[in-house]
Amino acid sequence: MDPVIIVGAGPVGLALSLALAAQGVPSVVLDEGTGKDEPRPARSVVLRADTAAMVERLGCTTLRDEGVRWVGWRGMRRRQVVRHLALDLGLGGTEEWSEDPASPSAPAAPLHIPQHALTRGLRDAISRQKLVELVTEARLDTIEQDRDGVVAHTRGPEGTWWRGSHLVGCDGARSTVRKLLGIRFPGRTAVERHAVAALRTELPWPGEALLHRQPSWRGAAEEITARPLPDGVWRIDWLLPPRGDLVTPDALVARIRETLAGWCDGVTPPYELIDTGVHTLHQRLARRWRVDRVLLAGDAAHLLGAVGTQGLDEGFRDVDNLAWKLALTWHHGASDRLLDSYQSERRSAVAHRLRAADQSLPVLRGGGGLRTYLPGAGRGHDALLTDGHVGRGPLGAPPAYPHSPLAPAPTEGRIPVGTPTGAPVEDVRVTAPDGTTVRLRDRLGQGRLLVLLVAPGTGVWDRRHWRGAGVMPRLEEAVRALPAKAEVLVTEAYPGAPAHAVLLVRPDGHLVAAFSGVRPEELYAAADAARGGSPTAEADSDEGPGTGTGAEAEAEPGSKAASAAGSAAGVSTGSDRTADMR
Asked: Which residues contact 346 (CB under 8 A, 6 or more apart)?
């Protein structure tokens, strides 16, 4: 079978290729550039705990080597510290946390890393993968679809035709794939602008991220953010006026000196300026994310990032959602409902995030709006910004899909647990089939459903004793009969779940359903719903769906593409090539 064609070799495209490879699906990544990224410390990304864990599962080692997890979050307004939070450096933190010092939970620490280091780590992981082919200097200019696949043409040293089962546009805000499909990309331009500098210095709060609103020194920006990077480097962002003047080098140096002096008792400490830039944030959402066998992900589908939200987080969540659905389709075939659910779930989640940012902007930037409903405007503003930057609430927490088209119908045996249906499951410790104890998050992303049994006391018994006792034999028999590949895991406890509860979890870690005990028929029905139902047989016809995008004016190349499409094996002569990597 033909590989998946991925257009774009940014972090989202590279991560998608690795996520597919982890599930046995080959891919071709078409990179318009040369495959080399210029080091830009001022261009960095913040990943929440869930997306950082996903990227680490894909084999990206630079997160640990060149990224920093914040040890704390500090919020200041004028001269006062108004919020100071300790952050959980492990993966046990939660997005639902309390600021009560007696509370056992703390927010999970975000991870901060230069984007070039993240991209290099993903490329290094791809270099160890046999199922991924990375092609540089390949610029897409044509897409055609038929009943069985997609044909794409790229310009480069030699024009090449590629044949794939599906094509995913991960080619950024100016996406060629989106334009060829004729998909509208409405939204707002330049909702926020920031001057950015990466510099090496010492600040009074090592390892902590800082958000300083309304600083007390004269001429300061309305809002300044400082976030640590390795080796004593900090990224500092100054919020700029919506229609301010251009940021000149002299003006930026003046901002740096004034800011450092303001934070260090009036004395500017020694610093080394490494990199600078201006970061402009837009908010846009593509009308459609799927046209037959072509899909969009990452910045090609959405742009966001205002008030602390993180666009790359959402791009990686696109990958996590789409990869297992494409893999199931590639290996076994699937109903249209499965791939349709990608757009339904992810577009709704991002739209919710954009609405939350839109509602917050007037509050935070002094335009009225919701501020009249907030008791204590300053306190409310700080809470909203903390949500966005730390990763909680509607601005930052991982999304849930309660209204997913893959949700099963209610049944008698369903029970509520601490995780709502459609939300990400808690990262509890589990016993895997081989007897090892791991985190639940470690078993995600492998293209199979997870069936989690809550069995208190199993930790004190040898596995060979309880494996064949109690409900385990009946549960394993039920799992073997499921319509999709699944794995049985056992945990001592799960929040809100009684003993012998059974949880069905999707490959991307979202809860499908929880049951009171082993209920084979209900478990089967829930698993069938999670895979989108039985694949529907398509009627034979002479013509496929054929969007014909980008090819109408090229009759001769189109014929050549059709010829290439008719052969799923081999490489044609000259400049025609079939991307067959089986």
From this structure: 289, 301, 317, 318, 321, 322
Nearest 5°: the CA angle 407, 409, 413 is 115
Query: In this structure, are residues 477 and 467 in contact, taking their beta carbons and an 8 Å threshold?
Result: no
Place of tokens 């640590």: 228
Q: What are phi and psi of 353, to 5 degrees?
A: -65, -40
Give yes or no for a contact between 187 and 40, defined as CB atoms under 8 angstroms apart: no
Provide the pLDDT for residue 36.
85
> 199 to each of 27, 194, 196, 226, how far by Cα in Å?
39, 16, 10, 11
* Residue 54, C-beta contacts closer than 8 angstroms, at least 6 positions apart: 15, 19, 316, 319, 320, 444, 445
Nearest CA-CA partner of 483 in 444, 440, 521 = 521
Taking Cα atoms as reference points, which of 19, 13, 546 lies closest to residue 326? 19
Averaged over 204-233, what is the pLDDT?
93
Can you read off the two tokens belonging to residue 191? Answer: 């909702």
Write out the DSSP string of 175-202. -HHHHHHT----EEEEEEEEEEEEEE--
CA dihedral angle for residue 403, residue 408, residue 411, residue 413, rounded to 10 degrees? -100
Q: Which amino acid is at 235?
A: R
Q: Average model confidence (pLDDT) for the chain?
A: 86
Q: With beta carbons less than 8 A apart as the criterion, state whether 289 and 347 touch.
A: yes
CA 23 to chain centre: 17
Enumerate residues 6+ apart whose C-beta is below 8 A from 506: 324, 406, 449, 450, 512, 530
Give, for 553, the enclosing helix (H) or strand (E): none
- Give 469-474's long-range contacts (Cβ < 8 A, gap of 24+): 470/500, 471/500, 471/517, 471/518, 474/518, 474/520
- Rounded Cα distance between 506 and 508, Å, is 5
Residue 296: φ, ψ to 5°: -115, 150
**Span 280-328, pLDDT tens digits:** 999 999 999 999 999 999 999 999 999 888 899 999 999 999 999 999 9
Residues 357 and 237: their CA atoms lie apart, in Å, by 19
Say how far apart CA 72 and CA 230 lie, in whole Å.
15
Higher pLDDT, 108 or 550: 108
CA distance 472 to 518: 9
| Phi/psi of residue 211, nearest 5 degrees | -120, 115
Q: Evaluate if residue 66 carries a pLDDT over 80.
A: yes
